[in-house]
Amino acid sequence: MIEIYSKKICPFCDKAKLLLKSKGYEYVEYKVDEDQELFKQMLDRSDRRTLPQIFINNQHVGGCDDLFLLEETQGIQSLLDKEL
Ligand SMILES: N[C@@H](CCC(=O)N[C@@H](CS)C(=O)NCC(=O)O)C(=O)O
Fold first, then answer.
1. Ligand 1 site residues, Cβ closer than 6 angstroms
2. How many whole angstroms from 44 Cα to the centroid of ligand 1?
3. What is the number of structural domains in the chain?
């Protein structure tokens, strides 16, 4: 499962979501600007304040740059394939 914390005006969020869509991955999106609790949850889980923050199978990937790096190196699929 891929989870992404995002907000409305956020070029890095758009770029990350575009990568996921282009590779055919589905994701659950949490819009932190619509719910303050979701922002707190993101802080708790990631200890970061910038958006997006991305999790794959509950593992923290990081932001947009981290997602691209992951795809270039071991691949997004490798985290999806990992047993929890
Ligand atoms: N290197 C980060 C950059 C993320 C970033 O700067 N995101 C902007 C929004 S597009 C942000 O969160 N800025 C600070 C803020 O809005 O509080 C990444 O790749 O995710």
1. 10-13, 49-52, 63-65
2. 17
3. 1
Distance in angstroms (rounded) separating the CA atoms of residues 26 and 47: 24
Can you spell out the DSSP letters for 50-74?
A: SS-EEEETTEEEESHHHHHHHHHTT
β-strands 2-6, 28-31 pairing:
parallel
Residue pLDDT, tens place only, 40-58:
999 999 999 999 999 999 9
For residue 50, the ligand 1 atom closest to its alpha carbon is 12
User: Which domain does 62 fall in, by range?
Assistant: 2-81
Query: For each of the chain's 84 residues, which pLDDT tens digit applies?
Result: 999 999 999 999 999 999 999 999 999 999 999 999 999 999 999 999 999 999 999 999 999 999 999 999 999 999 999 866
Residue 9 sits in a domain whose CATH number is 3.40.30.10
